[in-house]
Amino acid sequence: ATFLFDSDGSELYTYKSRGVLTYSETMPRPLKFLAPYIGEDFAKNPLGLPDNGGGDLKKGRGVLKPAGKAMGFLSILFKLENKLQAKLLGSSEVDFATARKEIEDTIAGDKIVVYTYGLSPFSTE
After folding, report:
1. pLDDT at 35 over 80
2. Secondary-structure breakdown of the chain: helix, strand, coil percentages, each rounded to the nearest 5
3. Which of 28, 54, 63, 115 shows its CA 20 to 30 Å from the CA of 92?
4. In whole angstroms, what separates CA 52 from the centre of its chain?
């Protein structure tokens, strides 16, 4: 899911997808939802690279779409893994409350917060 909030915490944009690798409603132009905030041209091509799509939105290009659908099927396994890890590590309700408080404090203290799955090949520091 992708969420965009303003400085008051009001929700500006929400997109929820069943696929793990899909974070924008317009994946061929994934930053299009930011156009009102960063400008149309920059949202279309933030790196200034040559446009191989001719400016048209084309659905289903590349290998990420099938991979994203496959990840959707694996989400059940990820949920089970999450619960198993919590149980094996002896996590308690206090641990969950502490983690939630830490997340809320981080969000309150920063203009932009991005959380991602650390083992993802698409996530780097």
Report:
1. yes
2. 45, 5, 50
3. 115
4. 24
